[in-house]
Amino acid sequence: MVLTLGLLGLIAVLIIPLPTVVLDFLLTINIAGSLLILMATLGASRPLDFSTFPSVILFTALLRLSLNVASTRLILLQGDAGSVIEAFGRVVVGGSYAVGIVVFLILVVIQFAVITKGQNRIAEVAARFALDAMPGKQMAIDADLNAGVMSNEEAKLRREELSRENEFYGAMDGAGKFIRGDAIAGLIITAINIVGGIALGVFQRNMTVGTALQQYTVLTVGDGLISQIPGLIVSIASGILVTKAASKRELGDEIRGQLLDGRFGVRTAGGALCVLGLVPGFPSFPFLVLGSTLLAYSLNQAAKNKAQPIIEEPEEPLAKEEEKIRDLLRVDRLGIEIGYRLISLVEPGKHGGLLEQIAALRRQIAGELGIVVPPIRVKDDVTLEPNSYRIRLLGHEIAAGSLRAGQYLAIDPTGTANPIDGIEAIEPAYGLPAKWISEAKKDQAEIAGYTVIEAPTVLVTHLTELIKKHASELLSREDVGALLDHAKETSPTIIEDLIPKTLTALQVQRVLASLLEERIPIRNLPLILEALAEHAGDKNDPQQLAEAVRLRLARAITEPLRGADDKLHVATIDASLEQRLLAAIGASTTPVDALPEGTLGRFVDRCAAVLAELVRDGHAPILVVRSGLRRFLSQAILGVVPGAAVLSYQEVASCAGVEVQARISLEEVAA
Length: 671
Prior knowledge:
Glutaredoxin; 9% strand; alpha/beta
């Protein structure tokens, strides 16, 4: 509101003639405002502490130009512009229009050619550097977030600050043009006032040229000085702000500390001044006084530094050491260790950007499975081979591999690609044959039929499969609590009725973990909770509850398994083998105990062969069995065929089309 009224007031000043008293008051405000801006700039520890400075420059420039118009009107119409302008015209320059013109021109040159030009250049360079550095800073924030160094809130604040910094330097680049234009406008307005005042005095008021020159020039120069001096102060403030580096201290303290704390420099300067004071013909008094003062200051600082004991601060190092020891106790839920030749993969913008891909992976897993992957710390390990990496889950190694930074992995998924030269390798996620090739051979490999991916993508693909495989282990109590809190926002009644009245959070966690073990998404948590609420009264075993939930999630389970023809292409077990398996299971709790010795191995091997045949035909590896067998067979088969889906007939009942591609018989697995 105040700003709006102020802008309306500036417009009014341009149109309405002002009394001299009001003009004096506004000119005083102009001087006071420029001094306040300078003091605020000196007190700011970094440019963003005065982030409104570009807007302030615009408003002060408008104020000065409006006052120039108002004062010009009074000078030409009345030959009087108030006490402030008259004081600057007579007292500051001694009433001499010649001296006033010289002083005014000197101020214009200082502001226009020195301060404003330098400030403009610095602002342009700072704006360009800030924009160029923005992607790297954003990547650094993402890297710290992925490594768990900062929280989401801290990352959000740093991104906002980075955005403000870029906007500030971009605005300062344009604000410098206001200052430069203000100086030019002041010079032109002053010249017009002098010429117009002399013409008015001579032709309309019958003054002599000398009288008109004396009266109008003194007032015009006073008007120019009272406009240029605040403008010069604002220009100085602008230059100080754009040259200021981030510091916890004020600029004056920083300059004093850096300029006067060096004893050698102070002592040398003092000695040089004393020598100049002794040179014949030079005024001895000022040189000797100032030189002696600097020498005395230097000796005093030396005595203070010598007398002052070195204060050791053991607490901070001890605290840091204690913090380091505690860091050793922390176990990352998920971490990557890399050899020293792979460190370049972590650097922002290099070789595909490993950290950026990890950040995208976390978002992908959240969208696919419905869980938030914990921050993944990437660190180097000197004990690893230079090109090797290791992936740890809860502190234990679950996978390892090797990469070649700056090279590409050419994968032959079908085994029909034309041979190319390269270093033989195995793609770690799916075990496919591959070759490491240079960037120069990338196009050749793609033409030959290879799938070519960058080194970071190889690692991230491997990590993706491991996360999906071990998602149930990554799901912690805290994660479940966060998921329930999020679901409570949309389904509060279900949460209140189910937890803890019917089931505990631990039981819900075990159900969700059972689903994740078979890569069942838990994104639709309200639907899962509804299914639990329906069956929790009859069943309390998490495995049985998970089976009941699967029926409610049947569409979500089968949808990603459908082929291009929107059908499920599956393998099944014949009735006699199912009866044999059901009879063998009985009261057993694991498939190993349920089946006779050797039968389980032959059965699993046959299932693996049949499912591999489905994959070769371009279908998902799906085995459909009776609901009573599904959980036992899933435990047995997933250990051999990790990507397999073991479904019950009830789960595929809602599918429009199911085609049986293979059937496993009793004779194939019998001893």
